[in-house]
Amino acid sequence: MRLTARFVQHAPIGWHCDGRGLYLQCAAAADGAICRSWAYRYVMNGRQRYMGLGSVADISLAEAREKAAGARKLRLEGIDPLEARQARRAAARLEAAKAMTFGQCVEAYLQAHEAAWRNEKHRAQWRMTLTEYCKSISDLPVQAIDTDLVLKVLTPLWKTRTETASRLRGRIERVLAWAKGRGLRDGDNPARWSGHLKEMLAAPAKIAAVQHHAALPYAQIPDFMAELRNRDSLAAKALEFTILTAARTGEVTGAQWSEIDFDAKCWTIPSNRMKAGQEHKVPLCERAVKILQSLDRRGGPVFPLSNVSMGMLDLLRSLRPGLTVHGFRSTFMDWAHEMTNYPKTAIDMSLAHKLDNKVERAYRRGDLYIKRTKLMANWGEYCGKPISKPISTAAVISLRTRP
User: Fold this and answer.
1) Residues of the chain with pLDDT > 90: what percent?
2) How far apart are CA 130 and CA 142, in angstroms?
3) What is the DSSP letter of 256?
4) Under CATH, what is the fold of the domain 5-98?
5) Which of 72, 82, 190, 343 has its CA 20 to 30 A from that of 270?
6) Domain regions of the chain by residue span
7) H-helix segments, 261-326
8) What span, in angstroms and rounded, lies between the C-alpha atoms of 73 and 92?
9) Closest-CA residue to 177 (of 201, 145, 149, 154)
10) Dihedral of the CA atoms 351, 357, 362, 363 (nearest 10)?
11) According to the model, what pLDDT value does residue 99 have?
12) What is the predicted pLDDT for the residue at 272?
């Protein structure tokens, strides 16, 4: 203990030993002042080491001696004090990294998975539900999210917006599972349904019946298609093409001319635009081909509307209020099952449905393209049937007796 508090404050440039490895280091600063700091100098495994203990402005002489004493104790245990401090700092940084909030985990999860979501609307729904409805837990550490907090988010929505709440629960479960996989939390997932929230919330199916897309009865399709053909708008052609191909709205709105083979009368939708993630070949009936031939083929998109889906929906609302574009897939399926003898598998493949039977999915290698070509040709013929005509009043003969 060679140094004094007074000397420390006025020590000149150089190294000043207090004893037992503790030094006061004084160096000139750029502005001419003297910077004074503490250092512990020792030898470990034949190497000379210097361990900074802090500035004189922050660490007093007594505190510096206490820190040096702690370092000497570690050396007696065979521990390098400098490496021990580096390990503590690394652990502290790791703990700080682990203290991610639920909102930060949501962002990280979305960034990790958004590339796999082909539908922009799907991406927007994930982000909206996990941010808007989870505001009360967004700033909380993810390891603090428990069952009560999950219920706090879900309960207000469960009875009034059941389907949305059910999807939100699944998305929260996925985010928390991601956080556990990254080592940010442990224990059971508080958003899991089976054996947990199932016992605390009413089953969604018992609260609100599933709302299916409104569909036009297939018997009315010929008349409806005749109305579409009388309209020369691009939205009308897009809607008619959608019905004739039994395709999803997103598949039609994203259609490119490079996907159309006029010689083979086939539309090949790439896997990245299909819901099932598999390439889908759509046989084109004669009317579908004529619609394509009537369009301008100089651009990339087949239907270059700024918003094709809204254009089709607005047109449909003006013709048949209450119907949805997607509902025409149900119309096609009802017609195929009730009016034809084609196998269910061919009908499901025409709709690009995933086969329910796992064994059949594993062994079926073909796509029943020949059968589907005939099926879609028959559908096109049915859609093009002459419209029904009302009975003329001139042909009605009154059977009343004359007075």
Assistant:
1) 61
2) 13
3) B
4) Double Stranded RNA Binding Domain (3.30.160)
5) 343
6) 5-98, 102-207, 218-383
7) 286-293, 308-319
8) 22
9) 145
10) -90
11) 76
12) 81
Angle at 152 between CA 146 and CA 154, to 5 degrees: 105
- Residue showing tokens 């250092």: 39
In the chain, % helix, strand, coil (3-state, to 5) comes to 55, 10, 35
Q: Which CATH superfamily is domain 102-207 in?
A: Tyrosine recombinase, N-terminal domain (1.10.150.130)
Q: What is the mean pLDDT of residues 144-173?
A: 92
User: What's the predicted TM-score (pTM) here?
Assistant: 0.54
Q: Up-side HSE of residue 122: CA atoms within 13 Å toward CB? A: 11
Ramachandran angles phi, psi of 283, nearest 5°: -70, 135
SS3 230: coil
Rg of the Cα atoms in the chain: 37
What is the rounded CA–CA span in Å between residue 295 and residue 56? 81
User: Residue 384 corresponds to which amino acid?
Assistant: G
CATH superfamily placement of domain 218-383: Intergrase catalytic core (1.10.443.10)
Mean pLDDT of 163-184: 92
Distance, in Å, from the CA atom of 400 to the CA atom of 403, rounded to the nearest integer, reads 9
Cross-strand pairs, 36: 26
Q: Is the C-alpha dihedral spanning 263, 264, 266, 271 positive or negative?
A: negative
The set of residues, in sequence order, having a beta carbon less than 8 Å from that of 319 and lying 6+ positions away, is 224, 227, 228
Residues in a beta bridge with 16: 24
Q: What are the tokens at 70?
A: 């702690």
